[in-house]
Task: structure prediction
Amino acid sequence: MVHIIDGNAVATLIREDLKTQIDTLQNSGVTPGLATVLMSDDPASKTYVSMKQRDCEELGMNATDIVLDPTSSSEELFSVLNKLNSDSDVHGYLVQMPLPSHIPEQELLFHLDPMKDVDGFHPENVGLLVSGNPRYKPCTPHGIQKLLESIDVDTSGKDIVVVGRSNIVGKPLANLLLQKSSGGNATVTICHSRTRDLANKTREADIIIAALGVPEFITGSMVSDGVIVIDVGVNRVDDDSEKGYHLAGDVEFDSVSKKAKAITPVPGGVGPMTRAMLMYNTVQAASLQSNISL
Result:
Protein backbone atom coordinates (compact mmCIF):
# COMPACT_ATOMS: atom_id res chain seq x y z
CA MET A 1 0.00 0.00 0.00
CA VAL A 2 1.47 3.33 -1.08
CA HIS A 3 2.01 5.99 1.59
CA ILE A 4 0.50 9.35 0.63
CA ILE A 5 2.80 12.03 2.04
CA ASP A 6 0.59 14.69 3.65
CA GLY A 7 2.24 18.07 3.11
CA ASN A 8 -0.52 19.88 4.97
CA ALA A 9 0.12 17.85 8.14
CA VAL A 10 3.89 18.37 8.02
CA ALA A 11 3.46 22.09 7.33
CA THR A 12 1.14 22.39 10.34
CA LEU A 13 3.82 20.91 12.62
CA ILE A 14 6.40 23.36 11.28
CA ARG A 15 4.07 26.32 11.85
CA GLU A 16 3.44 25.14 15.43
CA ASP A 17 7.19 25.15 16.08
CA LEU A 18 7.44 28.61 14.54
CA LYS A 19 4.88 30.01 16.96
CA THR A 20 7.27 29.38 19.84
CA GLN A 21 10.10 31.14 18.00
CA ILE A 22 7.84 34.06 17.10
CA ASP A 23 6.86 34.40 20.79
CA THR A 24 10.56 34.57 21.69
CA LEU A 25 11.11 37.37 19.20
CA GLN A 26 8.00 39.27 20.24
CA ASN A 27 8.99 39.06 23.90
CA SER A 28 12.10 40.98 22.87
CA GLY A 29 10.07 43.56 20.94
CA VAL A 30 10.48 42.12 17.44
CA THR A 31 7.60 40.92 15.26
CA PRO A 32 8.75 39.16 12.06
CA GLY A 33 7.57 41.00 8.97
CA LEU A 34 7.13 39.68 5.43
CA ALA A 35 6.34 41.80 2.37
CA THR A 36 5.07 40.50 -0.95
CA VAL A 37 5.35 42.37 -4.23
CA LEU A 38 2.86 41.44 -6.92
CA MET A 39 3.23 42.75 -10.46
CA SER A 40 0.80 40.53 -12.34
CA ASP A 41 -2.87 40.06 -13.15
CA ASP A 42 -2.42 36.29 -13.15
CA PRO A 43 -5.15 34.76 -10.94
CA ALA A 44 -2.84 32.03 -9.66
CA SER A 45 -0.22 34.58 -8.60
CA LYS A 46 -2.85 36.60 -6.78
CA THR A 47 -4.01 33.45 -4.99
CA TYR A 48 -0.47 32.50 -3.96
CA VAL A 49 0.17 35.97 -2.54
CA SER A 50 -3.09 36.01 -0.59
CA MET A 51 -2.27 32.61 0.91
CA LYS A 52 1.15 33.82 2.04
CA GLN A 53 -0.41 36.91 3.59
CA ARG A 54 -2.93 34.73 5.43
CA ASP A 55 -0.16 32.48 6.73
CA CYS A 56 1.55 35.52 8.24
CA GLU A 57 -1.61 36.71 9.92
CA GLU A 58 -2.36 33.27 11.40
CA LEU A 59 1.14 33.14 12.90
CA GLY A 60 0.97 36.67 14.32
CA MET A 61 3.55 38.05 11.87
CA ASN A 62 3.36 41.39 10.10
CA ALA A 63 2.31 41.18 6.46
CA THR A 64 2.77 43.91 3.83
CA ASP A 65 1.09 43.51 0.45
CA ILE A 66 2.42 45.67 -2.39
CA VAL A 67 0.66 45.56 -5.77
CA LEU A 68 2.17 47.19 -8.86
CA ASP A 69 0.54 47.61 -12.24
CA PRO A 70 1.99 45.03 -14.66
CA THR A 71 2.90 47.90 -17.01
CA SER A 72 5.04 49.62 -14.34
CA SER A 73 8.65 50.20 -15.29
CA SER A 74 11.58 48.30 -13.85
CA GLU A 75 12.66 51.58 -12.20
CA GLU A 76 9.35 51.71 -10.31
CA LEU A 77 9.79 48.14 -9.15
CA PHE A 78 13.39 48.71 -8.06
CA SER A 79 12.32 51.81 -6.16
CA VAL A 80 9.86 49.67 -4.18
CA LEU A 81 12.60 47.16 -3.42
CA ASN A 82 14.93 49.91 -2.22
CA LYS A 83 12.27 51.07 0.24
CA LEU A 84 11.80 47.52 1.52
CA ASN A 85 15.57 47.18 1.91
CA SER A 86 15.60 50.16 4.28
CA ASP A 87 12.40 49.31 6.19
CA SER A 88 13.44 47.83 9.54
CA ASP A 89 9.96 46.40 10.11
CA VAL A 90 10.29 44.21 7.00
CA HIS A 91 12.65 41.32 7.69
CA GLY A 92 11.96 39.45 4.47
CA TYR A 93 10.27 40.02 1.16
CA LEU A 94 9.66 38.33 -2.15
CA VAL A 95 8.69 39.37 -5.65
CA GLN A 96 6.01 37.00 -6.90
CA MET A 97 6.93 35.24 -10.14
CA PRO A 98 6.36 35.28 -13.03
CA LEU A 99 7.20 38.90 -13.83
CA PRO A 100 6.17 40.86 -16.93
CA SER A 101 8.52 40.25 -19.84
CA HIS A 102 9.96 43.80 -19.74
CA ILE A 103 11.42 43.32 -16.24
CA PRO A 104 15.06 42.11 -16.33
CA GLU A 105 15.05 39.29 -13.77
CA GLN A 106 18.84 39.09 -13.39
CA GLU A 107 19.02 42.82 -12.68
CA LEU A 108 16.18 42.45 -10.18
CA LEU A 109 18.15 39.90 -8.16
CA PHE A 110 20.92 42.41 -7.49
CA HIS A 111 18.39 44.87 -6.06
CA LEU A 112 17.43 42.41 -3.33
CA ASP A 113 18.97 42.83 0.11
CA PRO A 114 20.58 39.38 0.64
CA MET A 115 19.63 39.51 4.32
CA LYS A 116 15.96 39.97 3.39
CA ASP A 117 15.97 37.60 0.41
CA VAL A 118 13.90 34.87 2.07
CA ASP A 119 13.51 33.03 -1.24
CA GLY A 120 17.29 32.57 -1.37
CA PHE A 121 17.61 33.83 -4.95
CA HIS A 122 20.25 36.57 -4.56
CA PRO A 123 23.64 35.47 -5.99
CA GLU A 124 25.22 35.86 -2.55
CA ASN A 125 22.70 33.47 -1.03
CA VAL A 126 23.09 31.05 -3.94
CA GLY A 127 26.85 31.07 -3.35
CA LEU A 128 26.42 30.37 0.36
CA LEU A 129 24.14 27.45 -0.48
CA VAL A 130 26.56 25.93 -2.99
CA SER A 131 29.47 26.32 -0.55
CA GLY A 132 27.56 24.36 2.07
CA ASN A 133 26.78 27.24 4.42
CA PRO A 134 23.31 28.45 3.42
CA ARG A 135 21.87 31.57 5.03
CA TYR A 136 18.36 30.71 3.84
CA LYS A 137 17.54 27.45 2.13
CA PRO A 138 15.20 28.04 -0.84
CA CYS A 139 11.67 27.31 0.27
CA THR A 140 10.56 24.51 -2.04
CA PRO A 141 13.82 22.50 -1.87
CA HIS A 142 13.92 22.84 1.92
CA GLY A 143 10.28 21.80 2.10
CA ILE A 144 11.07 18.69 0.06
CA GLN A 145 13.85 17.79 2.49
CA LYS A 146 11.37 18.15 5.35
CA LEU A 147 8.84 15.89 3.59
CA LEU A 148 11.43 13.15 3.14
CA GLU A 149 12.46 13.58 6.77
CA SER A 150 8.82 13.24 7.85
CA ILE A 151 8.66 9.67 6.47
CA ASP A 152 12.07 8.78 7.94
CA VAL A 153 13.89 8.62 4.62
CA ASP A 154 17.67 8.70 4.99
CA THR A 155 18.95 10.24 1.77
CA SER A 156 22.56 9.21 2.44
CA GLY A 157 23.76 7.00 -0.39
CA LYS A 158 20.43 7.07 -2.19
CA ASP A 159 20.20 7.52 -5.96
CA ILE A 160 18.01 10.59 -6.48
CA VAL A 161 16.84 11.83 -9.87
CA VAL A 162 15.70 15.44 -10.05
CA VAL A 163 13.74 16.10 -13.22
CA GLY A 164 14.02 19.84 -13.87
CA ARG A 165 16.91 22.32 -13.67
CA SER A 166 15.27 25.59 -12.66
CA ASN A 167 16.99 28.09 -10.39
CA ILE A 168 13.99 27.88 -8.06
CA VAL A 169 13.80 24.12 -7.51
CA GLY A 170 16.05 21.81 -9.54
CA LYS A 171 19.48 23.39 -9.09
CA PRO A 172 19.22 24.40 -5.39
CA LEU A 173 17.57 21.09 -4.50
CA ALA A 174 20.40 19.13 -6.10
CA ASN A 175 22.89 21.18 -4.10
CA LEU A 176 21.06 20.52 -0.83
CA LEU A 177 20.87 16.79 -1.51
CA LEU A 178 24.61 16.70 -2.18
CA GLN A 179 25.61 18.46 1.05
CA LYS A 180 27.65 16.61 3.67
CA SER A 181 24.85 16.98 6.21
CA SER A 182 21.55 15.55 7.35
CA GLY A 183 19.14 15.39 4.42
CA GLY A 184 22.05 15.20 1.98
CA ASN A 185 24.88 12.81 1.07
CA ALA A 186 22.86 11.53 -1.90
CA THR A 187 24.03 10.65 -5.40
CA VAL A 188 22.09 13.14 -7.51
CA THR A 189 21.30 13.10 -11.21
CA ILE A 190 19.67 16.19 -12.74
CA CYS A 191 17.59 15.47 -15.83
CA HIS A 192 16.01 18.00 -18.19
CA SER A 193 14.62 18.53 -21.70
CA ARG A 194 17.91 17.53 -23.35
CA THR A 195 18.40 14.36 -21.32
CA ARG A 196 18.65 11.19 -23.39
CA ASP A 197 16.97 7.98 -22.22
CA LEU A 198 15.23 9.78 -19.36
CA ALA A 199 13.06 6.80 -18.48
CA ASN A 200 16.13 4.60 -18.02
CA LYS A 201 17.50 7.09 -15.51
CA THR A 202 14.26 7.46 -13.57
CA ARG A 203 13.84 3.68 -13.37
CA GLU A 204 17.23 3.51 -11.60
CA ALA A 205 16.21 6.04 -8.93
CA ASP A 206 15.42 5.36 -5.29
CA ILE A 207 13.78 8.80 -5.15
CA ILE A 208 12.34 10.85 -8.03
CA ILE A 209 11.62 14.55 -7.67
CA ALA A 210 9.58 15.89 -10.60
CA ALA A 211 9.85 19.65 -11.13
CA LEU A 212 9.58 20.32 -14.85
CA GLY A 213 6.15 21.91 -15.23
CA VAL A 214 4.65 19.40 -17.67
CA PRO A 215 1.36 17.77 -16.60
CA GLU A 216 1.60 14.04 -15.82
CA PHE A 217 4.96 13.69 -17.58
CA ILE A 218 6.30 10.96 -15.26
CA THR A 219 4.28 7.78 -15.85
CA GLY A 220 4.20 4.38 -14.20
CA SER A 221 6.36 2.86 -16.95
CA MET A 222 9.16 5.28 -15.99
CA VAL A 223 9.52 4.19 -12.35
CA SER A 224 10.54 1.08 -10.47
CA ASP A 225 8.68 -0.67 -7.68
CA GLY A 226 9.28 0.85 -4.24
CA VAL A 227 10.33 4.29 -5.50
CA ILE A 228 9.62 7.44 -3.48
CA VAL A 229 8.14 10.22 -5.61
CA ILE A 230 7.96 13.92 -4.81
CA ASP A 231 5.75 15.82 -7.28
CA VAL A 232 6.53 19.55 -7.35
CA GLY A 233 4.34 20.39 -10.35
CA VAL A 234 1.11 22.35 -10.09
CA ASN A 235 -0.38 22.64 -13.57
CA ARG A 236 -3.78 23.98 -14.59
CA VAL A 237 -5.32 21.62 -17.12
CA ASP A 238 -8.43 22.78 -18.96
CA ASP A 239 -11.50 20.58 -18.66
CA ASP A 240 -15.30 20.73 -18.86
CA SER A 241 -15.88 21.26 -15.14
CA GLU A 242 -17.58 24.30 -13.63
CA LYS A 243 -14.16 25.86 -12.89
CA GLY A 244 -12.96 25.05 -16.38
CA TYR A 245 -9.78 23.39 -15.19
CA HIS A 246 -8.26 20.96 -12.70
CA LEU A 247 -4.86 20.82 -11.07
CA ALA A 248 -2.41 18.16 -12.14
CA GLY A 249 1.12 17.41 -11.05
CA ASP A 250 4.12 16.49 -13.16
CA VAL A 251 3.48 12.86 -12.19
CA GLU A 252 0.67 10.66 -13.48
CA PHE A 253 -0.58 9.83 -10.02
CA ASP A 254 -2.76 6.79 -10.78
CA SER A 255 -0.12 4.76 -12.60
CA VAL A 256 2.89 5.85 -10.51
CA SER A 257 1.19 5.38 -7.13
CA LYS A 258 0.59 1.71 -7.98
CA LYS A 259 4.37 1.16 -7.94
CA ALA A 260 5.59 3.77 -5.47
CA LYS A 261 6.39 3.20 -1.81
CA ALA A 262 5.45 6.81 -1.04
CA ILE A 263 4.22 9.74 -3.12
CA THR A 264 3.05 13.33 -2.67
CA PRO A 265 -0.39 14.35 -3.94
CA VAL A 266 -1.24 17.46 -5.96
CA PRO A 267 -2.55 19.55 -4.33
CA GLY A 268 -1.64 18.99 -0.69
CA GLY A 269 1.93 17.79 -1.07
CA VAL A 270 4.80 20.16 -1.78
CA GLY A 271 2.72 23.34 -2.01
CA PRO A 272 1.92 23.75 1.70
CA MET A 273 5.57 23.07 2.51
CA THR A 274 6.81 25.87 0.28
CA ARG A 275 4.65 28.33 2.19
CA ALA A 276 5.66 26.92 5.58
CA MET A 277 9.36 27.23 4.75
CA LEU A 278 8.82 30.82 3.60
CA MET A 279 7.47 31.57 7.08
CA TYR A 280 10.43 29.70 8.55
CA ASN A 281 12.93 31.76 6.54
CA THR A 282 11.21 35.01 7.53
CA VAL A 283 11.46 34.11 11.21
CA GLN A 284 15.15 33.22 10.76
CA ALA A 285 15.68 36.57 8.98
CA ALA A 286 14.11 38.43 11.89
CA SER A 287 16.39 36.55 14.28
CA LEU A 288 19.53 37.35 12.26
CA GLN A 289 18.67 41.03 11.80
CA SER A 290 17.78 41.57 15.46
CA ASN A 291 20.61 39.43 16.91
CA ILE A 292 18.10 37.43 18.92
CA SER A 293 18.90 33.72 19.20
CA LEU A 294 16.10 31.24 18.74
Summary: Residues 178 and 185 are 5 Å apart (CA to CA). The radius of gyration is 19 Å. The chain has ten helices and eleven strands.
